[in-house]
Amino acid sequence: MDFINVLKKKHAAGTYKEMVLYIGACESGSVFEGVMPKYLNVYITTASNAQESSWGTYCPGMEPPPPPEYITCFGDLYSVAWMEDSETHNLKKDTVEQQYQSVKNRTSNFNNYNAGSHYKRSENGSEKKREIVKQITETMSHRAHLDGSMELIGAFLYGPQKGSSILNSVREPGMSLVDDWGCLKSTWRKLAWLLVMATTQANGIPSNRGYSA
């Protein structure tokens, strides 16, 4: 909502006539859905809707692939498609809507692309691969524990029959991500402190020492 309020202030001050905004991220449609007024004269396009992930392109294993020394995807499919379309069309003649439809047609063929940001293959049977598999197994076990805890919370709040469906429900298209933006912002702030705690542990400070402080 803070960003929307900035746009409202700029529109009221007459600091722009028309504006085009693009956000390339997973679930990026949630930034605007249900909260963006139409009178602001802003054309918005996002790499995904409010519930789905965006897609990477020029990744290892794709055709064409990135140079062999790189193990990452070179870009977001939607933004790359938009830039490549801009290089092959006369933008003085094509409208933004025409360009959007052209890019949308290319990015809708998901079967040609893989989701994700990067990956690297290890040799079968290698010690490194066994260690990675162990870490993944531990991570998945921890996530399953957290998921189970949330399921119990949902059952306690809404009952065993409705708890899971309510916790995993998605809002109707056109509705904002949340109603209580203050609560959401406070949650983000707490997540930022989790990064601080992770950094202290990476610098050799035991987690129990940080918690006791």
TrEMBL record:
A Pfam family that the UniProt record links to this protein: Peptidase_C13
Lineage, opening ranks: Eukaryota, Viridiplantae, Streptophyta, Embryophyta, Tracheophyta
Span of domain Legumain prodomain: 134-189
Protein name per UniProt: Vacuolar-processing enzyme
GO cellular component, one term: vacuole
UniProt similarity note: Belongs to the peptidase C13 family.
InterPro entries named in the record: Legum_prodom, Peptidase_C13
GO molecular function list: cysteine-type endopeptidase activity
GO term, biological process aspect, one: vacuolar protein processing
